[in-house]
Specification:
CATH topology of the largest domain: Aspartate Aminotransferase, domain 2
Radius of gyration: 23 Å
Largest sheet: 7 strands, mixed
Structural class: alpha/beta
Strand order of the largest sheet: 2-10-9-8-7-3-6
Helix content: 25-40%
Strand content: 5-15%
Low-confidence stretches: none
Number of helices: 14
Distance between the termini: 71 Å
Number of strands: 15
CATH superfamily of the largest domain: Type I PLP-dependent aspartate aminotransferase-like (Major domain)
Length: 429
Amino acid sequence: MIDEINFRIGKRKNMYQINDNYQKLPGSYLFSTIGKKVAAFSEANPDKSIIRLGIGDVTQPLAPAIIEAMHKAVDEMGHAETFHGYAPDLGYDFLRAAIAENDYRARGCDIADDEIFVSDGAKSDSGNIQEIFEKDNVIAVCDPVYPVYVDSNVMAGRTGEYDAATGRWSNVIYMPCTEENGFAPDLPGTGKTKEVSGDRRPDLIYICSPNNPTGAALTKAQLQKWVDYANANGAVIIFDSAYESYITEEDVPHTIYECEGARTCAIEIRSFSKNAGFTGLRLGATIIPKDLKDHNGNALYGLWARRHGTKYNGAPYIVQRAGEAIYSDAGKAQVKEMVNRYMSNARFIKESLQSMGYTAYGGVNSPYIWLKTPDQMTSWEFFDYLLDKANVIGTPGSGFGPSGEHFFRLTSFGTVENSRIAMDRIRAL
């Protein structure tokens, strides 16, 4: 019977193939690797108390205004007349209006309600946004960089081949962010970018400000240069503003749309995870102005709307009501208090490390501390050293790109108590 079936369908080898681009990814996702190493250490040392200052996950509870809004939304789901099923794929009007008014128009930015696309977080959108662009487009990334930007383009087959010796992909323009340039990327064809990537011009430019992992933030004048460059060269900036609520300096913009001309060259991705502690709820948004078009006049707005409608069922009603609540008077005050606690933590960690003789950056406009490893230790050597000797977890800088080597990221998202214990342990080394 089997032979007969094989004869009829024409038996052949390799009846399906995987996406071979996934095979090009070196190792596992950074934070998965860290998780495996920590799990192995915990199993071997069950008596050790580990303090986690690595992953950017929040520890403070949700603000009371958010909890109240969620309770109300849950009650609504228990009655037929107020029950909500599938959410609108682009987001509920009440949340899109709140975002547009409070995060943009209140800052003088011309963003319409319907230019807001609600999602389940910035990570998803920053990984998925590349799908609306042609495969041959060249990407430029800061180095070090949030791994999702590069990895998602690797999966799409856009990055070329990986060079293990340099830690770089052949078709990617790297923009080193180092001590020498104040951790601010140089424009393509200039400075350190030219040293690494020559005179190549990018089509897609990924910028995160305040930056993950370095904690550095671009001033308005610096960001305006990027907007001008993108408009002059027909490039699109994918701007990740996940940490904008941590900005403390007046000359640092909270959104790229504070810059003149950004509507014609920039997509912005936002997150509720860091500003309001939504890591466990999952909520974010992507902003695509209708003015943003390719050289043939194709609006990126329509492409993303089509992709969103096809592949996404919408963030839950309860979660979107929670998001709306952060824009209430009570929500704003409570969220600001939470952010201030994390930033107080950041200042403490940074000042503590500096008092020990470490070179440390960040912690001013960001919840991240960018620490230089001592004695020319590699970032993974320092990771193992801290884990073994102090039972403290951070994130190796090399996991963010080659320019991250000999650096180490610590987060201020831990509790005040644990942050103080961690510094005491490091001081005792």
